[in-house]
Write a structure and sequence with these properties.
The complex is a heterodimer. Chain A is α+β, with helices and mostly antiparallel strands. Chain A is 29% helix and 29% strand. In chain A, 48% of the residues are buried. In chain B, helix 3 runs parallel beside helix 5 and helix 4 runs antiparallel to helix 5. The chains are: A alpha+beta, B alpha+beta.
């Protein structure tokens, strides 16, 4: 595939965004009727639906933890979510992302309130255009809130990449594939605690520091959208209060 | 002593919202870090006798000792029944707590008393999260549900269906003439003269559930019941 020029000389990206601009993000809460909590996110062209079940009885029972609830996450890409058909068999990448999503949410959940139970998080990618793990983490924290699972904070997530020598916020698929480096980060915004940081490719020390700062700013923007979505969904009950 | 809070009374808060700092007590759904108080769920923040609390809008039922719940039998084991009480843990109803006598498994089958799918009104006698909640029916008014309808509502709406000092539930009983019992776990038992009568009450309860945190609800429910009176 021939390489496209991704950033113009005046700093405009391939899809018309500025370097530090997020794609349009839309969160929706309570989309699945049968789940205890659910959320749907449209993050540019990335579309993910997340369902949360539990806390509920652990099965198989021998995996239950005596002092806290077990958190189980399953990230899955639908076969039609990418340009080329994706095999429906679980891939190495899906298994890894499931683990990463679980570990980025675990610090936020009061797991010790529900010993011997399980909370299941299912993230189904309907359409993938980069930053799917970030979108899944952000949506999963809303689905957990919707399920009424007690949490320390919401978790917001965004990725920063180095493309053509410049740091860009919220990478899309094309930038991810042609870029030099990719760094997803998840943050508990009101605690300022990083729960996930990964890095693919190379960054200098300075670039790394800058990336973290940029990602934090991005996370705060995502956090604002998450709160907006929660307020929108639960408004009916609070606003009518005289 | 007046200490400012970061919220209006009954303001919508989300997990991680800083509620206040200072000399308060952490109430339900609130956690404390140093001197700061944060919400842990989505709900409505309130200050009740120096304790910051959040009324949850979503969540499952957490058993407490002395709660009366309505359970559904999901499993029969030789001398006990496992009950789904809509909490993260299944309730255990031992034969001696249900029959007031030990069950001789050589002579009789636990299934002949209670089978899978049947509903039981029971009381929580012990629960500390390390073991499943144990239940009993050895008290008046408790036991197997033989008639009427059982409906499910969101457990967080139970206090609203009962109302202040039972105002809402008494209204429902008075206007409909039905027998109603609200289990703490969000299952409501309704027994009237006919199914239609029960359906009207069920519809009224659905209305309460949907409009739980609005004002003037009692009046609207009264109106509704009068309109649909049989």
């Amino acid at each position: 595939m021939e390489k496209k020029k991704l950033i113009t000389d005046d700093g405009i990206r391939y899809d018309g965004r500025k370097l530090d601009e997020l794609r349009p993000i839309k969160f929706q809460i309570g989309t699945l009727k049968n789940a205890d909590g659910s959320a749907y996110v449209e993050w540019g062209r990335t579309k993910i639906i997340v369902g949360v079940f539990g806390p509920r009885e652990s099965h198989p029972k021998h995996l239950a933890l005596a002092d806290r609830c077990r958190i189980q996450a399953l990230y899955r890409m639908t076969p039609f979510s990418v340009e080329e058909w994706k095999s429906p068999a679980p891939s190495r990448r899906e298994t890894e992302l499931s683990k990463v999503i679980r570990e980025s949410l675990e610090p936020a959940i009061f797991a010790e309130f529900f010993p011997r139970t399980t909370v299941d998080i299912f993230a189904e990618v309907l359409q993938a255009d980069g930053s799917t793990r970030c979108a899944a983490i952000s949506a999963a924290s809303l689905a957990l809130t919707d399920a009424g699972v007690p949490m320390r904070d919401l978790v917001s997530s965004v990725a920063v990449a180095k493309v053509e020598g410049k740091l860009v916020l919220d990478v899309m698929d094309l930038e991810d594939k042609q870029g030099d480096s990719d760094m997803p980060m998840a943050l508990m915004p009101s605690k300022n605690v990083i729960t996930l940081i990964q890095m693919d490719g190379l960054l200098t020390h300075e670039e790394f520091i800058q990336s973290v700062e940029l990602a934090k700013r991005g996370c705060m923007e995502v956090y604002a959208k998450q709160r907006e979505a929660l307020e929108e969904h639960f408004k009916t009950v609070s606003k009518e209060e005289a | 002593m007046y200490i400012p809070t970061n919220f209006e009374p009954r303001q919508l808060v989300v997990p991680g919202t800083l509620l206040t700092e200072g000399k308060y007590n952490a109430g339900v759904n609130v956690y404390r870090e140093d001197n700061k108080f944060f919400s842990s769920v989505v709900g409505l923040a309130e200050l009740r006798n120096e304790a910051v609390t959040v009324i949850p809008l979503r969540g499952c039922y957490i058993p407490f000792v002395d709660d009366v719940v309505i359970g559904k039998v999901v499993e029969v084991i030789s001398t006990a029944w496992m009950l789904d009480i809509r909490s993260p843990w299944q309730g255990v109803l031992f034969a001696k707590e249900f029959l007031s006598k030990p069950l001789n498994t050589m002579k009789e089958d636990a299934r002949s008393y209670l089978d899978v799918g049947e509903m039981v009104k029971a009381k929580v006698i012990a629960f500390d999260r390390t073991r499943n909640p144990s239940l009993t029916t050895r008290e008046p008014e408790l036991g197997k549900i033989q008639r009427g309808t059982v409906m499910e509502v969101d457990p967080t709406r139970v206090p609203r269906i009962i109302g202040k000092k039972g105002s809402m539930i008494n209204l429902l009983k008075k206007e409909s003439g039905c027998q109603i019992f609200v289990g703490q776990n969000g299952r409501v038992w309704i027994a009237g003269k006919s199914r239609d009568e029960e359906a009207v009450v069920a519809e009224a309860i659905r209305k309460i559930e949907a409009e739980a945190h609005t004002t003037g609800l009692t009046d609207r429910i009264q109106e509704y019941l009068v309109k649909h009176r049989m």
